[in-house]
Structure formats: C-alpha cells, structure tokens
Specification:
two-stranded antiparallel sheet, 19 helices, two-stranded antiparallel ribbon, mainly alpha
Length: 495
C-alpha cells in the first residue's frame, strides 16, 4: 500500500535517507548528529486530510534538534557532545554517509562502552571529537587509527598479525601534511598528535618511545596557551601537559608552562574535567588543590635532583632543610585531602574495603568510579613521592627524622597496595594509567610484598609487553622506575 512505512527505522534517518540501525532508545546516527531520536516508526499509518498540504511526522514525535547528552552504558556518567547548529544538518548534502560520519559512528560506539572499557582516564577530550572530524583530515585519520588500534588490541593478536599499521602510516602522513601547512597550530591537529602518541603503545609493544612526545613539546611551545572558549583546545592542552610532565626525560623542558596564559588555561581544564565527570567524594575544591600540589611535586623533584647531585656540605644543608620544610607542608595537605576523601567515600559506598587473604596486607579496595580511583590513588602516589624525598633528604643530612619518615612512608605504601586487586580487574590499557602507586611504593616492599606486586605488574602487562619476562630484569626495571619517579635516577641509566 503506497505511503505505509515498511521499516521501523526512526523518521530522522528516513528524512536523511540513511539506514537506521534501530538501536533504541537512540539510534547511532542520531547520536552522531547530536539529534534527539524520535524512536521507531509505527508500521500503521493514519492518514488525515490536510487542506494546507503540510507534512506530518509519522513517528508521532516532533523532530526537534535540541542539544542532548549521551550516557555511558552501565554508568551514570554523562558525556556531553557539543551541539551542531540546526542549520548545519538541515542543509541538503549530496552524500549524507561521508567518511567522517562512519568514523564518528565508530568513535561513539567505543565511547558508549563506558569509562571502564576505554582509555578515557587520560583522554577527556574524546567526546569533543565527533563534531570536529569534518574540520581536519589528520584528525579523521587519527580517530580512525584510535578505533582500529582498540579493536586490534582487544583481539589479543600477536604484534606481527595486527592490521592497524596501514591506518598508522596514513595518520602519520596526514599529520605531517597538517604540520607543514596552515593547520599546524589548530586544536584538531593537537588532538591528532595526542591520539597518535597514546595509540602507538597499543600496536608497537614493548618499551614506548617518546619521539611523538618530543614533537608535541615543540608544537606546544610554538602554539602557546589554548583559547579558553574552545573546550577541545583546553582539554587537549591539559592532556598533553600531563603527558609531558609524566615523561621523566622532558620535565626540565616544560618550564614554558609558567608563561602568561598557561596557568589560567590549565585551571580551566581542571574546571572542565571536574564538571563533566563523577569525582565521587572529591570536592571540586579538593581536586583543584590536589592538582596544584601535583604541579608543585615536579618542581620539588627537580630541586631535590639538583641538591642530591652535590656532595653534602655545610653550604648545602640550609637548602636541604628549606626543601624539607616545604615538602613536609605539602605532604600534610595531600594526606589531609586523601584521608578526608577516603573516609567520605567509605561512608557513601563509593569505595569499599574488604578482607583479602591473597594480599600481603590482608585488605583490598573496590571503587565505584574509575575517575575517583584515579584521583584518590594519584593523591596517594604524590604523598609517597613527597615522603620519599623527605626520607632521602633526612638520610643525606643524617637527620634523626629518617626513621619516623621511613615508617610513615611504609604505612602509605601499604595503603596503596590495597588497590592492587582493583587494578587487575580493569582492562590493561586503563589499569596502566593507575599503576603509579605500585611503581613508587615498590622499594618499600618486603620479599613477600615484592612478589605480590610483580605478579600484578606481570598480569596487567601481559598484552602491553612493557616489561621484560624475566623476574630479575623486571625487578631491576621496577626499582629504576621508582627512582626515576622520585628524582633519584636518570633515563639514560636504564639498562
């Protein structure tokens, strides 16, 4: 019968003349264009005579184009996709199924797996990308690489059988063209660089290279602070700031972040992040305060490296005492934030402490939100590093405080080991971002605790292949990483 609907696809997809995948309550194509999905079309059509010949909506719902939110499956966490102007998708398009439509579909499918199933822990800019794909070829190719790398990595194929190298070469070529052209300093290009840097570790197994990180450093220096009104620009800048500071070989090259404009941009990034994700019991004030102490930590490490590289003399003692006083004040405040958030989390159920006979400390933590886990364990890691600096400084000047500081250090390390079972429950590419407490606490472990930590690292690293398979070499590498993260070794010494 003419005019009777033959499929239950939504009316928006029918109007755009594309196939609807009928995944209710919101089909994937409506999610891509940021449009409310009107739902399935009724297979029964009621025909009413309209004297003015106006078109009616057979889906029974108005085709409004209001901004909407997509919520991760199995999570209460909303991810905001910034709206496209109504006129942008109402204009006639010769081909409504463009390449960036397909890439956006793949990205949204990955995002909807939930925060535990994707690497959003260090990639808060991902939800900003679908509506920016049409503006940059290198961004499209990099997102395509991101999606392909995740699929290949999750297939657990041997490195030689991965199919992602084609996309990797294509992404590098388009990034090169963008850097040589007039798109070098655009936020889309910076996002493409961040994606390539992150994804390379998934298909190039073993010890990661920092070639991309060095390139990011140079481009950021040329670009300068991000535009505060551009969410993508601010989010990517903050992600790259973290990437650079976590590269132990580049810490001294990051002084340009102290230039005018950068501090405000970094603070804006923290504000964006805390307003868009569930931080659990962490208040916005505590999160901002913790981030500030994290930034100070890198300055403390550099100062400690400079002091400890000199032979202890009467002249160096005042410098060590000054450093210890400031580090001690920071450690007290970080401990306060971590303890208050833990107590609140335990009361609210955001964090649960249970007996664990398999753990050498006899207890374990479970977390409701990986974002809260990231910030809480980050605070514990910062506290361990600060206590390590205090302990080593006290040993240099032969202070009587060394024993008490060492005992305090071990107590906080034991606290961090309660999270090891939680690390093991996560996907390896997510767990990798939470491993700092294991690294910085490793030296405080006894023989039994050391084997427990090495077992966890070996399990999480089974697909990433960052560590050597032999236990003796793994021990050597763990100790060196701990010393790197606390300013007591250099990257060049890693053997």
């Amino acid at each position: 019968m003419p005019g009777v609907p033959r499929s239950r696809g939504c009316q928006t997809c029918k109007d755009r003349k594309v196939k609807c995948d009928e995944t209710w309550p919101t089909c994937t194509r409506c999610a891509v264009i940021n449009s409310p999905c009107p739902g399935p079309t009724s297979l029964v059509k009621f025909v009413a005579k309209n004297p003015h010949g106006a078109k009616t909506n057979t889906g029974g719902q108005p085709l409004t184009r209001e901004p909407r939110q997509i919520t991760f499956r199995n999570s209460h966490l909303p991810i905001r996709f910034h709206s496209i102007n109504q006129s942008d998708y109402q204009k006639p398009r010769p081909n409504p199924t463009t390449r960036y439509d397909h890439i956006a579909l793949r990205l949204i499918s990955s995002l909807e797996r939930g925060p535990e199933g994707i690497t959003t822990l260090r990639m808060s800019y991902l939800p900003e990308l679908p509506v920016r794909l049409s503006e940059s070829k290198c961004l499209r190719d990099s997102v395509d690489l991101f999606c392909a790398a995740l699929i290949d990595f999750r297939s657990h194929k041997p490195e030689g059988e991965l199919h992602v190298m084609t996309q990797y070469g294509k992404a590098l070529r388009s990034l090169r063209m963008a850097l040589l052209g007039n798109e070098a300093l655009k936020p889309e290009t910076m996002a493409a660089m961040a994606l390539i840097e992150r994804m390379e570790g998934l298909f190039k197994r073993g010890s990661p290279s920092n070639v991309h990180t060095k390139g990011i450093l140079q481009v950021l220096k040329m670009k300068g602070p991000p535009k505060l009104k551009d969410h993508l620009d601010v989010a990517v800048a903050n992600e790259l700031y973290g990437v650079l500071l976590n590269d132990w070989t580049l810490r001294e090259s990051c002084s340009f972040f102290k230039a005018p404009g950068w501090q405000e941009a970094l603070d804006r990034g923290v504000e964006q992040f805390t307003s868009e994700v569930d931080m659990g019991p962490f208040s916005k004030h505590d999160t901002v305060e913790f981030v500030e102490y994290s930034r100070q930590l890198h300055a403390f490490i550099l100062e400690f490296q400079q002091i400890s590289s000199q032979s202890p003399t009467i002249e160096t003692k005042p410098a060590i005492e000054s450093l210890c006083r400031r580090v001690s004040e920071a450690e007290v405040e970080v401990a306060r934030i971590a303890t208050a958030s833990k107590d609140s989390a335990l009361k609210q159920g955001a964090m649960v402490e249970k007996p664990d006979p398999k753990s050498p400390v006899g207890r374990k933590y479970e977390f409701r939100s990986p974002f809260f886990a990231m910030v809480y364990l980050g605070a514990v890691s910062v506290q361990i590093v600060l206590l390590r600096i205090l302990y080593e400084s006290a040993a240099i000047v032969e202070s009587s405080d060394a024993e008490d500081t060492g005992q305090r250090l071990r107590e906080v390390c034991c606290e961090s080991w309660k999270a090891v079972p939680y690390f093991r429950s996560l996907e390896s590419i997510v767990a990798e971002n939470l491993m700092a407490p294991i690294y910085v606490s490793y030296e405080a472990a006894n023989e039994l605790e050391e084997e427990y930590l090495l077992d966890a690292v070996e399990y999480i690293d089974r697909d990433l292949k960052r560590f050597p398979p032999e236990r003796s070499q793994m021990r050597h590498m763990m100790v060196h990483i701990a010393k790197l993260m606390t300013g007591r070794a250099s990257q060049s010494n890693l053997g």
